[in-house]
Design brief:
It is a single chain. By secondary structure, the protein is α+β, with helices and mostly antiparallel strands. It has one domain: minor pseudopilin epsh fold (3-Layer(bab) Sandwich). A hairpin with a 4-residue loop joins strand 10 and strand 11. The radius of gyration is 31 Å and the shape is elongated. It starts with a helix and ends in an 11-residue tail after the last strand.
Length: about 190
């Protein structure tokens, strides 16, 4: 045989074996690590979503109660806030007396529906035991000073707590003078007491 041909063949076999890509074992290890990380992250992500819904519902309630007080003073007219508690909770604002937030067009301010429903916030409840409003599940802001009153016209403090399935809650409180505040001992970013 020709020595030049042998020399070429031996040089080709001595060249490093360069391969690109991943082996099956490397891919399986990468998938296993990814699965473990996702398994640990999903409960945390679920908790984050639930807390986000709770904060959104509590902030909407806070904003609507402040809106009711402002409109009462601005329009020199009583503004009523009526609540339905439980898993299918809702509340509505009305400038025409106590309303039923479960009935279409029952809760209106200046001709515009003002209802917030628990169905907009999956997993968030307004437990009956968390509603501390004297005289039931409604109160009114009187127009001269924006003072909160119960259904009998007596000045009262009131409080409502929205709760998540994991037990976290945010309380929205209304003082006698109409000051609206929020607090939570289980959700960060709020004072511990109202």
């Amino acid at each position: 045989m020709n020595t030049t041909l042998l020399h070429k063949l031996s040089r080709k076999s001595a060249a490093p074996n360069i391969s690109t890509g991943f082996t099956l074992v490397e891919l399986m290890v990468a998938l296993a690590v990814t699965a473990i990380v996702l398994t640990m992250a999903v409960p945390s992500f679920t908790s984050l979503l639930e807390r986000s819904r709770l904060k959104a519902a509590a902030n909407a309630m806070y904003d609507d109660i402040r809106f009711a007080r402002t409109v009462a003073i601005k329009n020199n007219k009583d503004i009523y806030i009526s609540f339905t508690t439980g898993d299918n909770w809702c509340y509505g604002l009305s400038d025409n007396g106590v309303c039923n937030c479960g009935t279409a067009s029952s809760c209106q301010v200046e001709g515009v529906d003002r209802v917030l429903s628990g169905s907009d916030f999956s997993g968030i409840t307004l437990p009956t035991s968390s509603v501390a409003i004297a005289g039931g599940t409604s109160f009114v802001f009187e127009p001269r000073r924006g003072i909160a009153q119960d259904s009998a016209g007596v000045w009262r403090n009131g409080a409502l707590s929205l709760a998540s399935a994991s037990g976290e809650s945010i309380q929205t409180a209304v003082s006698i003078v109409g000051r609206v505040s929020q607090c939570s001992s289980s959700v960060g970013g709020y004072p511990a007491s109202c």
